[in-house]
């Protein structure tokens, strides 16, 4: 865990292909790093540990590794009951000699959101830009300086941040557009039917304002999540499994309140800071703390962004973010068949609606409340680590154990 500072928020918004940031994007990057460090034709053996092995097939981990290694892949060993000390998601690469002896090895940990770590350090990280590592200190700094949260972020990241965030929003928007127009079933053994298109049509034709809000938020969230489940290009926010909550809320607020692209960029920055605080001080890894670390963080990010877009104060932003996590405490990560489909897709839609509720509730107040955002991160981390591993992305318990939902092909 990083304790000296926060990295760039751009590391939270990673562009890649689904369905999983920790089980697909992370292993892809780890494989690329190992191949780059060890070019040639020597055979490579890959061992998957813990949660990475337990749900790797459903998350296409083996397919991703195979596509990169090609003929160099010797074999993939699956060890779902073996957990390495640093993190539940571990994979080891062994470069083999012609006589099948190990000449060199490297272990990577896929720690969430597509980020990697080794036994010694974090990989592919731009360093720590932010010296302030708590929400309370951040707010006090902004209050003292007299400027909004996005200005504080710009001060640290530089004005080029806005160009990079806009590029990510373009990727998000493209995924949403594809999802809103796609039909059919998603890949995998569940044969889950896409619903974003039908929900969007209903949203456009209903005269009930409450139904319209829910239908729009659900359609936008389903569109991006369904594209992720199909392995399309998306942006982690903060993970692949929770990638559509924030986009749905931003798109809804943009349409409802007529926000500009500049506003979207600033909202993304605020949400990114919230997500980074959770990532550094807690966890966004479902394999480490359950889905509360993924969808709970996504809800907190979206709620904070929504408050700012609705004209809220720094304290109201903090309150909304805190509620986003507090009311997801204890949420398990139990994907059926190891697929990022049930319950993941629906959870994004519900989290988007809850994020708007958190924002509106915070705006009713003056921002003062009892449990701080910094405290709730610590509680979430403690709660997640207390969960049995069956409920942390291993598909051994919870909804994943309900075999009745698994369908067989016709």
Summarize the structure.
The chain is 50% helix and 10% strand.
What characteristics describe this protein?
single chain; about 400 residues; alpha+beta; 60s Ribosomal Protein L30, Chain: A; 2 domains; six-stranded mixed beta sheet; 15 helices
What does the model show?
The protein is an alpha+beta fold. It has two domains: 9-123, D-3-phosphoglycerate dehydrogenase, domain 3 (60s Ribosomal Protein L30, Chain: A, 2-Layer Sandwich); 135-405, no CATH class. 50% of the residues lie in helices and 10% in strands. It has 15 helices and eight strands. It has helices at residues 21-37, 50-54, 61-69, 135-145, 149-157, 160-181, 196-205, 209-229, 245-257, 261-281, 286-289, 295-309, 314-326, 344-364, 373-386; strands at residues 15-17, 44-49, 73-79, 89-96, 102-112, 115-117, 122-123, 233-235. The protein has a six-stranded mixed sheet. The chain has a two-stranded antiparallel sheet with strand order 1-8. Helix 6 crosses helix 8 (209-229) and helix 13 packs parallel to helix 15. The termini are far apart.
Give me the secondary-structure category: alpha+beta
Question: On the 0-100 scale, what is the average pLDDT?
Answer: 94
Strand order of the largest sheet: 3-2-4-5-6-7
Q: Quaternary status of these chains? A: single chain
**Main beta-sheet annotation:** 6 strands, mixed
Report the uncertain regions.
Answer: none
Number of helices: 15
Count of strand segments: 8
Query: What is the N-to-C succession of helices and strands?
Result: EHEHHEEEEEHHHHHEHHHHHHH
Helix amount, in percent? 40-55%
Globally, the shape reads globular
β-strand amount: 5-15%
Radius of gyration: 21 Å
Number of domains: 2
State the end-to-end distance: 47 Å
């Amino acid at each position: 865990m990083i304790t000296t500072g926060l990295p760039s928020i751009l590391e939270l918004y990673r562009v890649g292909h689904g369905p999983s940031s920790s089980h697909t994007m992370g292993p892809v990057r780890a494989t690329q790093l190992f191949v780059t460090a060890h070019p040639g034709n020597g055979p490579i053996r890959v061992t998957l540990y813990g949660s990475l092995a337990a749900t790797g097939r459903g998350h296409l981990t083996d397919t991703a590794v195979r596509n990169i290694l090609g003929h160099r892949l010797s074999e993939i060993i699956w060890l779902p009951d073996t957990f390495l000390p640093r993190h539940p998601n571990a994979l080891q690469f062994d470069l083999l000699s012609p006589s099948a002896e190990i000449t060199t090895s490297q272990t990577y940990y896929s720690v969430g959101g597509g980020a990697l770590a080794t036994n010694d350090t974090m990989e592919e990280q731009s360093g720590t830009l932010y010296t302030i590592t708590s929400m309370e200190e951040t707010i006090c700094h902004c209050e003292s300086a007299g400027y909004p949260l996005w200005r504080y972020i710009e001060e640290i990241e530089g004005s080029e941040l806005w160009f990079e965030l806009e590029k990510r929003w373009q990727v998000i928007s493209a995924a949403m557009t594809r999802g809103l127009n796609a039909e059919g079933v998603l890949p995998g053994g569940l044969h889950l039917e896409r619903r974003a298109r039908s929900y969007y049509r209903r949203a456009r034709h209903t005269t009930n304002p409450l139904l319209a809000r829910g239908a729009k938020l659900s359609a936008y969230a389903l569109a991006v999540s369904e594209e992720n489940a199909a392995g399309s290009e998306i942006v982690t926010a903060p993970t692949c499994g929770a990638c559509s909550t924030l986009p749905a809320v931003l798109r809804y607020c943009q349409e409802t309140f007529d926000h500009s692209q500049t506003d979207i960029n600033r909202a993304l920055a605020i949400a990114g800071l919230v997500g980074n605080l959770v990532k550094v001080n807690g966890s966004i890894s479902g394999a480490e703390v359950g889905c509360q670390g993924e969808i709970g963080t996504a809800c907190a990010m979206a709620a904070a962004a929504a408050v700012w877009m609705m004209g809220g104060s720094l304290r109201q932003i903090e309150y909304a973010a805190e509620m986003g996590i507090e009311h997801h405490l204890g949420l398990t990560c139990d994907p059926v068949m190891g697929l990022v489909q049930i319950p993941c897709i629906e959870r994004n839609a519900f989290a988007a609606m809850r994020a708007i509720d958190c924002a509106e509730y915070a705006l009713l107040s003056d921002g003062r409340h009892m449990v701080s955002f910094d405290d709730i991160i610590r509680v979430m981390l403690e709660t997640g680590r207390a969960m049995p591993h069956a409920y942390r992305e291993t598909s051994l318990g919870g909804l994943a154990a309900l075999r009745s939902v698994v369908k067989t092909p016709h």
